[in-house]
Write a structure and sequence with these properties.
By secondary structure, the protein is an alpha+beta fold. The chain is built from 11 helices and 13 strands. Bound molecules: adenosine-5'-diphosphate and magnesium ion.
């Protein structure tokens, strides 16, 4: 049976504010985080076209979904089930087992992209510029050799800049030793990447769509670190995403990328190839940074990027002239168009007699 023309009943699932979350300061949702949740709910309400429910609590979440029986689940649970980043795929997998259509990345994309070394290797094979890098297994982190300075040291698997403080940028072997020791004690058991530090401009490229249908790269944005006080490395550290009192939060701005149209198009083409190869769906965000030689290198791929009204994706959507509510509406429409295409495809393969 073909789905309805458009999704009418939708359930939106998010991270659980009542549980600890390792990507937040002190593992707790802040007033700012709660405001982001409220703004999302208000934006969906303002569209006045969906019957919707927002489910934040993870205990009993799937029972509530079964009961509500939505046409579509908007999977904004970017924290993972029970706010455990390793359980990000569990939500998508469970929705599949319940045969509930949902927006965004399938488990495969989340698994691939959570491992930054894998993303880098696949990107390199597709001809995308990537930073020089050394992978350090968890057991050898404390005495890892750093092949290049300055270097940026970070966990191989993490999101939300967990494990990336202002000291992640190291200039010599002493700073490197200290940071590696800190990582080994703070995130024990975690493999580490030592990368060439990319000193130039940082860019974000957001996409809404799917390669088989409409595929819309949003205008790129760049990060303006120029107002940061001396001594603050120009990176999007953990504090930039979690601590409203830090200069990293107050003094960093996003602005339209000052890049020629042609360069933006080339990067969008790379993102399209990565989007397919990494099995992303409906939307995603790609982060780049400029190397010392001027080339723009891929840092990471986010198959389940932050969806808040203050997040990069919403800022990029605003550069395209979309309100936040319009962005959410587009996400739903894109997912629904894909789900309809998939249903038609299934029907073709097994025609009803
Ligand atoms: N090789 C690098 N050179 C310079 N800055 C980097 C590098 N890798 C990461 N960063 C900085 O750290 C931030 C977070 O790194 P990223 O790999 O995107 O981790 P996360 O998945 O936690 O967002 C980036 O936005 C960037 O500012
Ligand atoms: Mg990032």
């Amino acid at each position: 049976m073909l789905p309805k023309k458009s999704a009418e009943r939708i359930a939106i699932i998010t991270g659980d504010p009542s549980l600890p979350d390792p990507t937040k300061q002190d593992q707790r949702y802040s007033a700012e985080d709660l405001a982001v949740h409220a703004a999302m709910r208000d934006a969906f309400a303002s569209l006045d076209r969906f019957e919707f429910t927002v489910i934040e609590q993870h205990a009993g979440m799937f029972d509530k979904l079964r009961e509500f029986a939505p046409d579509l689940v908007v999977n904004f649970c970017d924290t993972g089930l029970f706010n455990n980043p390793n359980f990000e795929i569990h939500v998508a997998t469970q929705l599949e087992m319940m045969r509930l259509p949902y927006t965004g990345a399938p488990p495969r994309a989340m698994t691939l992209c959570y491992d930054k070394q894998i993303v880098r290797l696949l990107a390199e094979a597709l001809g995308v510029d990537v930073p020089m890098e050394r992978f350090v297994p968890a057991a050898s982190v404390r005495d890892a050799h750093v092949p290049v300075f300055p270097a940026l040291i970070k966990p191989n698997t993490a999101d939300g800049s967990v494990g990336i403080t202002k000291n992640a940028l190291v200039q010599d072997k002493y700073e490197a030793r200290d940071y590696l020791a800190w990582l080994a004690s703070e995130l024990p058991g975690r493999d580490v990447l030592i990368q060439e530090y990319l000193p130039g401009t940082e860019y974000g490229l957001g996409i809404i769509g799917n390669p088989e249908g409409e595929f819309t790269p949003l205008p790129m944005l760049e990060v303006d670190f120029s107002a940061l006080p001396d001594g603050f490395a120009p990176i999007l550290s953990f504090e930039s995403k979690t601590d409203p009192d830090s200069p990293y939060w107050t003094d960093i701005r996003f602005q339209p990328a000052a890049l020629p149209e042609k360069t933006q198009q080339e990067l969008a083409d790379q993102c399209r190839a990565l989007f397919s190869r990494l099995s992303l769906r409906d939307y995603g965000r790609f982060d780049f940074r400029t190397a010392a030689d001027g080339s723009i290198k891929l840092m990471e791929v986010n198959p389940n990027p932050a969806w808040g009204n203050d997040a990069k994706l919403a800022i990029m959507a605003s550069l395209a002239g979309w309100s936040y509510a319009t962005m959410l509406e587009q996400l739903v429409a894109t997912a629904w168009a894909r789900i309809t295409r998939e249903a038609v495809e299934r029907g073709r393969r097994s025609p009803v007699r």
